């Protein structure tokens, strides 16, 4: 049984790495090493970080071996080296980077599989999540791979709603299988009656709002949102295919749009309850009004820095996944989070009332 599990996990690890390299195959070394934005990492740093994370969890923590390159531990620690400084560091590049990634992987394939492969799955999903972040950086820089076409069209404007009845339901992931610590424990939650968008809001609907003064009408915006809009000089949105969900929307913009339509953003409880009945889930991340915090009975696992250190009032929860999110990561229980001013995310909006 364990041999079968190990074989399956190793196959997935190989497929995911091939996918990662394919994502950047069109770029030369200069593009891989440059800093495209102060809020994004150089792509080569992300690649090295993936390998260092794998070495830490599979080779060191599971396999009991010394780190392959202990001198790289701080360099590739996301907390020790925030995004704003990564481009100035001597991270691995070119052939030394590829050799490091290959040697870490060779060792990882020898690591024992424990607890049903939980930490192997953690490493796999970590790489998949980072490839979405890398794609964000590429889109910002105008160097996205030709295969990335954005979210598919939806059949609706985003203003049509469906009704969800009041009452309890089970929120979060169960005890079986892999889940992140912030998805557990599964527990009973309850909502009142509400309506929620049948689809995400489309570019056509968003543009109509912008053309009618959406970005200049102060009444639509929160104090924080208006301050962000003014400071950044934001008075429009780059747009996209008319029938596709609007994307690269901040929480502040999503909140203002909803308010302008006598609506609001759903809570994440409302979102998860309604998700099985909604269309367009997984096309774009969808902002919720909820702050990121732990469920009742939350326990950090396998380390505090995955979720717990981000709990509080700074981050808002996003749900659903995007066209850039791998299906292995995306689920109706998965909780993404980010700062309300972030526009690089593949994020849109679904209204509620």
Automatic annotation (TrEMBL):
Q: Where is this region: Disordered?
A: 170-194
Q: Where is the DinB-like domain?
A: 14-134
| Superkingdom of the organism of origin | Bacteria
Q: Which Pfam families match?
A: DinB_2, FGE-sulfatase
The pathway it acts in is: Amino-acid biosynthesis; ergothioneine biosynthesis
Q: Any keyword Iron-sulfur?
A: no
Sulfatase-modifying factor enzyme-like domain: residues covered:
160-275, 281-353
**Which UniProt keywords are given for this protein, alphabetically ordered?**
Iron, Oxidoreductase
Supply the Gene3D superfamilies for this chain.
Answer: dinb family like domain, paralog of FGE (formylglycine-generating enzyme)
PANTHER family per record: HERCYNINE OXYGENASE (PTHR23150:SF36), SULFATASE MODIFYING FACTOR 1, 2 (PTHR23150)
What is this protein called in UniProt? Answer: SUMF1/EgtB/PvdO family nonheme iron enzyme
Native source organism of the sequence: Solirubrobacter deserti
């Amino acid at each position: 049984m364990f041999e079968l599990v190990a074989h399956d996990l190793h196959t997935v690890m190989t497929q995911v790495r091939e996918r990662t390299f394919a994502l950047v195959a069109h770029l030369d070394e200069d593009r891989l090493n440059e800093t495209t934005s102060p809020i994004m990492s150089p792509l080569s740093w992300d690649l090295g970080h993936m390998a260092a994370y794998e070495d830490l969890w599979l080779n060191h923590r599971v396999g009991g071996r010394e780190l392959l390159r202990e001198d790289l531990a701080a360099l590739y620690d996301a907390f020790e080296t925030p995004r704003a400084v990564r481009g100035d560091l001597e991270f691995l590049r070119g052939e030394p980077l590829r050799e490091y990634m290959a040697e870490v992987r060779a060792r990882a394939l020898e690591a024992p599989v424990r607890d049903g492969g939980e930490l192997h799955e953690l490493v796999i999903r970590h790489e998949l999540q980072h490839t979405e972040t890398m794609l964000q950086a590429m889109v910002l820089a105008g160097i996205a791979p030709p295969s990335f076409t954005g979210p598919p069209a939806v059949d609706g404007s985003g203003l049509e709603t469906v009704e969800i009845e009041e009452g309890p339901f089970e929120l979060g992931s169960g005890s079986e299988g892999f889940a992140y610590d912030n998805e557990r424990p599964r527990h009973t939650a309850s909502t009142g009656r509400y309506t929620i968008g049948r689809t995400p809001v489309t570019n056509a609907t968003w543009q109509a709002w912008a053309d009618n003064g959406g970005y200049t009408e102060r009444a639509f915006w929160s104090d924080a949102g208006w301050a962000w809009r003014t400071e950044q000089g934001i008075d429009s949105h780059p747009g996209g295919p008319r029938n596709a969900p609007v994307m690269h929307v901040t929480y502040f913009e999503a909140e203002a749009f909803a308010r302008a339509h006598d609506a609001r953003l759903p809570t994440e409880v409302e979102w998860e309850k309604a998700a099985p009945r909604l269309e367009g889930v997984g096309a774009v991340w969808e902002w919720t009004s909820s702050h990121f915090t732990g469920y009742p009975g939350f326990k950090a696992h396998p380390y505090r820095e995955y979720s717990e250190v981000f709990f509080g009032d700074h981050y808002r929860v996003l749900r659903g996944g995007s066209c850039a999110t791998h299906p292995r990561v995306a689920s109706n229980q998965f909780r993404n989070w980010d700062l309300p001013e972030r526009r690089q995310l593949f994020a849109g909006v679904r209204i509620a009332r």
